[in-house]
Amino acid sequence: MAIEHKTRTQLVAEAIREKILTGEIKAGDPLRQAALAAELNVSRIPVREALLQLEAEGLVNFEAHKGATATELSASQIDEIFDLRALLEAELLSHSIDGLTDQDLIDAELILTELESAMDAGDTHLATGDLNSRFHGKLYSRAQRPQTRELVDMYSKNSERYVRMHILLAGGLTTAPEEHRTLLNHCRAKDTKKACDFLKKHILGAKNDIKKLLLKIEDEKR
Amino acid sequence: MAIEHKTRTQLVAEAIREKILTGEIKAGDPLRQAALAAELNVSRIPVREALLQLEAEGLVNFEAHKGATATELSASQIDEIFDLRALLEAELLSHSIDGLTDQDLIDAELILTELESAMDAGDTHLATGDLNSRFHGKLYSRAQRPQTRELVDMYSKNSERYVRMHILLAGGLTTAPEEHRTLLNHCRAKDTKKACDFLKKHILGAKNDIKKLLLKIEDEKR
DNA sequence: ACATTGCATTTAGCATACATTATACTCAAG
DNA sequence: CTTGAGTATAATGTATGCTAAATGCAATGT
């Protein structure tokens, strides 16, 4: 295994992405190239290139001569993104479900139990989001649709900070864990239609929770 | 109206994009930063940044320390991209169709007649692709789904060179113009289901044509 | 008091120069 | 003849510094 040589640009991109996802950089905040460069001990070039990458990921807005800002997602944008996720993830699942092996299903269940015990332990942040996306990822793993997968990953990354915010403010995921169990069972039964329909509902349900929260926050600003 | 100041990066990106779409740069070709910089009379910095943008658009692969190449789409990737397009464009249309005004429909029809006369005149290249995407764009114009729209635009840009290739080699679009008429009629009737189903078939039909061509080319390489 | 123009400051865009990595080639050893 | 280490070369990655655009502020005139 060759040691991998990460470029400064990649490291900087990771650093900034993390800052945005954790909320250290809030939506709308300007991202000054010089400040970031100084903070991370690099020149402005890798910072610029990292910002360009993050723009492609939808995490920052980059305006010529004006600078970059962390993207601010309005309630209507959240709406659209989750609709897209429902559409794309159902598509992925439909292509993956028949290829899922028994081992895959066991793995998925293991992740689920881990997720449940993490929630019982009151682990509201980090772990739950990660485990959640690992569970979904497992179910999509046999889809052989790399581009679709990439899209889905991008959008879930982008929604992550809002999910985290929601977990923080609402004190946990409101979407019950048994929803995941139900989904898993549909997959076990290889019932494509039921599984995909349920998945869509599952995602759209999460959307509504987050949207409510966001609308409340948008309101409070006035 | 303020004059718009295009940055060198943007200009370079447009130049390279055009080279790729017209086929001047063929799939798989390496893109040397220094050569492009010299050719376009800029330094390597804007070239690098342009290449990063093009990577986000899926036109270029950028590998650290190895350089950039024009992306090479295999038959299976074409397959996936067109599936995605069918899914996303149907989604867009479903959100747009009820909002389409009479004027929109007239505009769409005008574009169609223009397209038809261009094809009659034997204009195999440029115009047809552009008019085609303008027609589709018109139908989606009331969707109020900016992110979805952006995705769709990205993917049609990315497929464009293959469509052009197909037009060149097969001597024209095989998808008959009356398909567009049929689609337009469904939209006039505000028959969402029929319109979307037909649109999907329309896109998947184009997919199969192009895939056949691509498989033949891939075969001939052996 | 208000708008407007011009200047100063800040910040982004870009060119040049240097550092680092990957690759092709040479040459020696097995 | 093949293989492998080492070196040369060419390409990419990054730092530094200069240029140009945008923003804020002050001064001037109405």
UniProtKB/TrEMBL annotation, chains A, B:
Parts of the chain that traverse the membrane: none
Protein name (database record): GntR family transcriptional regulator
SMART domains in alphabetical order: FCD (SM00895), HTH_GNTR (SM00345)
Keyword DNA-binding: yes
Taxonomy of the source species: Bacteria, Pseudomonadati, Pseudomonadota, Gammaproteobacteria, Alteromonadales
Signal peptide: none
SUPFAM superfamilies associated with the record: GntR ligand-binding domain-like (SSF48008), Winged helix' DNA-binding domain (SSF46785)
InterPro entries to which the protein is assigned, alphabetical: GntR_C (IPR011711), TF_FadR/GntR_C (IPR008920), Tscrpt_reg_HTH_GntR (IPR000524), WH-like_DNA-bd_sf (IPR036388), WH_DNA-bd_sf (IPR036390)
Superkingdom of this protein's organism: Bacteria
Chain ranges of the HTH gntR-type domain: 6-73
Keywords recorded for this protein, A-Z: DNA-binding, Transcription, Transcription regulation
